[in-house]
Design goal:
This protein has 715 residues and is of the alpha+beta class. The chain has 26 helices and 26 strands. It is 51% helix and 19% strand. Strands 14-26-25-24-15-22-23 form a 7-stranded mixed β-sheet, sandwiched between helices. Strands 16-21-20-19-18-17 form a 6-stranded antiparallel β-sheet. The two termini are 35 Å apart.
Length: 715
């Protein structure tokens, strides 16, 4: 995929029922001119595309409709609820009619013949199959009319073939009737669909919880009056009033008041954060104690919460490399099963007499085997059982359900996994390379001492106020006085310079030694005026509370912690010693960080890089996994695979653990889905499985995959 492909679009795909459907839609989207990457997720029923330029919605719609499905931009909870209610209604109707005729069938099997049962079976079976199962029939028809097959195709052939036997029997033909079996197949299929739908919605509840946090309206101050307006009408620069107990509706900056803010639903941190004037607040967090006025800085899709929801949806909609195996198998699975079902049916029909001894012996072990002397009846019995048992629903859900659960759990812990491949790669990480400032340390540096002349402080502060460097904020706060600076230039890895009243000032890496200050873990920068030394500024940045513990955890799980910083060697080693890092790279430039990453990769180590500054962007992109601190620069975040929304490097331990758990679940899901089909299909072809038992087993296998995926949350 091209690095220049910046446009991303997410939308709902309507009508998919299995992995083959998702693969078909994905292929169709890839054919749209300009689409560089597409991923369609069955578990979330969403599609995600990346393109060079924004593609009109109508073009995407045509591509999806060409594959036989439909799309919608509405991915709200209301759509999920409507779908869930419709599924439940169809299930209840199917059970209401299927249970009575199943009881009648049992009586019929034991010689208690019910007058007109054949006609009842045709009418009720037809109602259950063609009305309550109309979505399944439609899904199968869409697939067949577009020259491919899906899981619904198997259910269609199995249930309709069974119902036709009842229809033929009612006309007096000597063939065993499986009409009730057809209804049972559809009812059990709908039961499985309902449970999958319920558990799928439950698995994605973190997304829904985040979306529910988005306020519907805000209290805006207009000409000294409070006016409630829809959140869509709020613009940047508006002043919003938030009272205690209310949810903050927008991203912004406090301009009046102070309060404790509960950001737990967004960051995973349970302790409320004290916020005062000039500090930023996040829309969706809860105002606890004080009245605050907020100046709106971001609205709509630009808000932190909206971006967070979008990123999680993108991750859940993407794929991990192991899923390619499952996709290749499911693509050919249905037509192969159809062929096997037909072949096995024909074999039984033409060789029934010679196989009678075998099947009579097997009835002692499997009492549900059809007891008939009619070759056609038994061949239909085998055909239907083979089709139903082989539905690859579990195979299609194995990977996406685990991804939904894994990314949801990550979000709960304050991690946004932007790239689904990171879930597969993170488990193999052997080296974690960390920047110092803002990563191992808090990223809130303060000036502890300096010897800059008083009349020059305002010049230096003004220059640094224009810089993005992590230390710049500390220097810019030395005074609130500002002067107009010309020709500001940031020299990556060295410092920043600017011109005031014809003189050039440079603030950056020191050329002299400051061993005493460095040994205290102070960072020193020097200030020059027209290449003449004006003095130095000593800055300290407290180590994050979780850094030392995180380093210990890295070592416990077999990961080598490494520090790579542009800071002075003595300062870097003092910080490294305090947190327990042995491998330290100091005084490195941005391009050096990338070389350090390449160095460890060259030794065969999967490497994770974590940083928060623009000087970390290249290394973040070059590492096997790039992790950005959420409070860092946009450039760092844009080049990262994982974003730490709140907290420090201890969150990387969580990311690795979630990766290992998720991938373990994916492997077990795929194993059991494969194992189930490998054992069950030959048994059905041998005539040992009843279609009703086959359908129950198929539904149970799908539910098992979903429940197994949900174990990620419980660990």
């Amino acid at each position: 995929m091209s690095n220049d492909a910046k446009n991303k679009q997410n939308f709902r795909v309507i009508g998919m029922t299995c992995a083959t459907c998702a693969k078909t839609v994905e292929k169709s989207l890839k054919k749209v001119e300009g689409v560089k990457f597409s991923a369609v997720n069955l578990a979330t029923e969403t599609a995600f595309i990346v393109s060079d330029e924004e593609i009109p919605f109508e073009e995407l719609k045509k591509a999806v409709q060409k594959a036989g499905y439909d799309i919608s931009l509405d991915i709200s909870q209301d759509v999920e609820k409507k779908r869930y209610e419709e599924t439940k209604k169809n299930l209840l109707l199917s059970l209401l009619f299927t249970i009575p005729i199943s009881i009648m069938m049992i009586f019929h099997m034991f010689g208690k013949h019910i007058p007109g049962f054949n006609v009842i079976e045709v009418i009720i079976g037809g109602y259950v199959i063609f009305y309550t199962g109309r979505k399944t029939i439609k899904g199968a028809w869409i697939a067949l009319s577009h020259f491919h097959t899906n899981m619904d195709t198997l259910i269609l052939f199995g249930s309709v073939a069974s119902w036709i036997t009842a229809l033929l029997n009612s006309f007096g033909l000597p063939i065993a009737s499986f009409g009730t079996i057809g209804a049972m197949i559809m009812a059990l299929h709908l039961t499985g669909r309902f449970i999958e739908s319920h558990l799928r919605d439950k698995a994605a509840k973190e997304i829904k919880a985040l979306m529910n946090m988005q306020a519907k309206e805000a209290r805006v101050i207009v000409e000294d009056e409070e006016l409630f307006m829809p959140i869509e009408a709020v613009k940047e620069g508006f002043i919003v009033l938030v009272k205690p107990g209310e949810r903050i509706p927008v991203d912004g900056e406090i301009i009046e008041g102070k309060s404790s803010i509960d950001e737990s639903m967004i960051t995973g941190e349970s302790i409320p954060v004290e916020k005062v004037e000039s500090e930023k607040v996040i829309g969706g967090s809860l105002n606890l104690t004080g009245v605050i006025k907020i100046k709106v800085t971001k609205v709509g899709e630009d808000t932190f919460l909206s971006q967070m929801v979008k990123l999680i949806q993108e991750a859940q909609g993407a794929k991990v490399p192991i899923q390619a195996l499952a996709d290749r198998i499911t693509l050919w699975f249905v037509p192969i099963v159809m062929t096997l079902a037909v072949i096995s049916g024909l074999i039984w029909y033409f060789n029934f007499d010679s196989l009678t001894g075998f099947i009579n012996n097997m009835r002692n072990v499997f009492p549900w085997i059809l007891n008939t002397n009619d070759p056609l009846s038994f061949s239909v019995f085998v055909f239907v059982a083979t089709i139903v048992i082989a539905c690859p629903c579990a195979l299609g859900l194995a990977t996406p359900m685990a991804l939904v659960a894994g990314t949801g759990q990550a979000a709960k812990k304050g991690l946004i996994i932007r790239n689904a491949e990171a879930i597969q790669t993170s488990k193999d990480v052997k080296v974690v390379i960390m920047d110092k400032t803002g990563t191992i340390t808090q990223g809130k540096p303060i000036v502890v001492e300096h010897n800059i002349p008083k009349d020059k402080v305002k010049i230096i502060s003004s220059i640094e106020s224009m810089s993005n460097h992590p230390l710049a904020k500390a220097i810019s706060e030395m005074t609130e006085e500002r002067v107009k600076i010309e020709d500001i230039e940031e020299i990556s890895g060295s410092g920043v310079k600017g011109i005031f009243e014809g003189k050039e000032y440079f603030i950056g890496k020191p050329k002299n030694n400051y061993d005493e200050l460095n040994s205290k873990a102070y960072t020193v920068v020097e200030v020059y005026e027209d290449n003449n030394l004006l003095g130095y500024i000593a800055i300290t940045d407290k180590i994050r509370e979780d850094s030392k513990k995180a380093i210990e955890e890295f070592k416990k799980i077999g990961i080598i912690p490494v520090m790579a910083t542009g800071d002075n060697e003595k300062t870097a080693k003092a910080v490294a010693k305090e947190v327990g890092i042995e491998e330290v790279w100091a005084e490195v430039k941005p391009e050096d960080k990338l070389n350090i990453v390449r160095n460890y990769q060259g030794k065969g180590f999967k490497t994770l890089m974590v940083g928060d500054g623009m000087n970390d962007a290249a290394a973040l992109k070059g590492a096997d996994i790039g992790v950005a601190i959420g409070s860092g620069t946009d450039l760092a975040i844009d080049n990262a695979d994982i974003i730490i929304v709140k907290g420090g490097v201890s969150k990387i331990v969580d990311a690795v653990e979630i990766s290992r758990k998720t991938f373990s679940i994916i492997k077990s899901n795929l194993f059991w889905a494969f194992f189930y089909n490998v054992i069950a299909i030959p048994a059905a072809m041998a005539g040992l499985l009843h279609p009703a038992i086959a359908e129950t087993a198929m539904a149970f296998s799908s539910i098992t995959v979903v429940l197994n995926s949900l174990r990620i949350k419980g660990r």
